[in-house]
Amino acid sequence: MNIPNAPLKGVFFMHFILSVWALQHSWLPVSYMYYNLIFMATLLWSLHCKDSEEPVFMALVIDGASVLLDIIVISVYYPLSDGYYRANFHFCAGMCILNLILRVVSIFVLLKIFHERGGRYDDLGIPGIPSGNYNDIDQHNQQSVPKTAVDTGSPTHDYIPANAPPPYQGP
């Protein structure tokens, strides 16, 4: 069975489930929910616009920013008091950390989808990722110069083929 947009749907459902499970406990701030909802909206937009690379690029940027935001949220809001150490909290914190780890995987999946939809890596400026065809105009290459009128294809030269009709003389 061939599911259209399977990698994109997989990324969506993976982050949706992990975000919902991470938000089951009250230790995360509301901002965690907001940037995850914006990420989910861009993924849905990517599913809707199947030919455009723009929504995938937006999802890629938000996913990359979410890695940094997740690290900040976990490091700042992770409680150090003994009152939070319950099974529910451990499960929610684990899902939040797992969501953070899988964001790196989803970035590479989104990069692949971005490339498949016509996006170019050289526009992103990421080192180590192959770019499209780039011609360095500053590099001086030796160009060949045409030697005859046949090489140029120009009708202004005096080359007349043997079977050509006589030129038009006018009335």
Automatic annotation (TrEMBL):
SMART domains: AGTRAP. Keywords: Membrane, Signal, Transmembrane, Transmembrane helix. Residues 143-155 have a biased composition (Polar residues). It holds the Pfam family AGTRAP. It is a multi-pass membrane protein. Residues 143-171 are annotated as: Disordered. Residues 1-22 form the signal peptide. It is found in: Membrane. The chain crosses the membrane at residues 56-78, 84-111. It comes from the Eukaryota. This is Type-1 angiotensin II receptor-associated protein-like isoform X1. It comes from Limulus polyphemus.
